[in-house]
Amino acid sequence: MDDTSPERPEQQVNIEFSFNASHILTDAEIRQAVDEIGLIGGDYKPEYAKYASYELHASEYAEKLVYVNEITGHVEMPTQGDEISIEPGSTVKLYTSETINLPGNMLAQVIALGQLFAVGLSAGSTYVDPGSRGEIYLSLTNVTNRALRIPVGCPIGRAVFFALGSYAQVQHGGPETRRGIKLRVGVPELSITKPQSVREPTSLTTRLALHKLSIYLLLGLVIGLAWATIGRPIGNDFLNVAIGTSLPKALRFIVPPLILGFIAFLSKDLRSTLKQIFQVLAKKVAAWFSNLPD
User: Fold this and answer.
1) What is the pLDDT of residues 208-253, one digit of tens each?
2) What are the tens digits of pLDDT across the range 89-98?
3) How far apart are CA 91 and CA 69, in angstroms?
């Protein structure tokens, strides 16, 4: 659009930029618009204008979706070692380190990078209205069963800028006029599935610890059996005491597994396993007593 462009409405941002025709801005036009009207602010770098879009990056500021009674809301999330950690099932608003300042004859669309989808994040796109200015964000939901960490400064999206044939009659008023949508949410349904048996906990760590204990005890029984079947004393009192031939056979059979079992008990994973098992058994016993008739 040249100097004979249509008259602009009163409600607009005080920045102007002319176009020859409606089109998508190329990288060179994006850099030109930044120089002339400050199209992109914040942590802007000219080399991030590529092809026909601008690459956006994660800032250190994010907000997590929370539920306040039956209403949705957002709270600020602190960074963890220059990373934004998104827990499984969580939804966050991740703000970009760049800002966008649009004239009334331009709009933009922010699209999440495909790499976010590839690692298990569901991302939403953002529509930036003519006249908008200030910070923007992408909504990300972790659909995996592990926490995903996004480094601060990591590329997360691309902004595509559209030149319009005329100025929008109604333009966006800026960050203070953005809509805040709060939705009502239902109460989570209680699970009615039957609890698992006393054999819990059945995690991989617990099973490995139990296997470890079994191996120690089995090895102790083998050593005890061999020790208990040693023949007659060898005629030397010191050696008889050292090899235990003077001890009862039953005692020689029991001592080795007790010693190896104690060594296994000293390991942290086995102590944790036994603690978990005792807790499960205690709950089962308490539940059994509570169900006894009066």
Assistant:
1) 666 766 776 777 677 766 666 665 555 566 556 656 666 676 776 6
2) 999 999 999 9
3) 17
Q: 32: buried, middle or exposed (CB in 10 Å: 19+, 13-18, 0-12)?
A: middle
Domain 23-173 has CATH 3.40.630.30: no
Domain ranges of the chain: 23-173, 204-290
What is the pTM for the complete model shown? 0.57
Residue 129 amino acid letter: D
